[in-house]
Amino acid sequence: MNSETFGEQVQRSCQRGTPWYVLAELLHSRISVASASETGEIKAVACAMSRYTVGLLNRYISTYARTTLIAEASRLNASDLLSPVFNGVEAAVKLYDFDRDRGLDALIQLKQGKTTLAAVRTKLAEARELQSAAANLPGYSLIPRRLTDIEQQRRQASIIRALQNGFAPLSGRYEKIDWRKRDRLLRCENLYIVDGDDQRRGHKAIEMVDAGPESEFNHVDTIIPAAILRSSFFKKYYLVFWTDDTEVHAKRAARLLKWLEVDSIGILTVDAHGRVNGHPEMPYDLSEPKHDRSSKFEAMLNADY
Question: What pLDDT shows up at residue 2?
Answer without folding.
Answer: 54
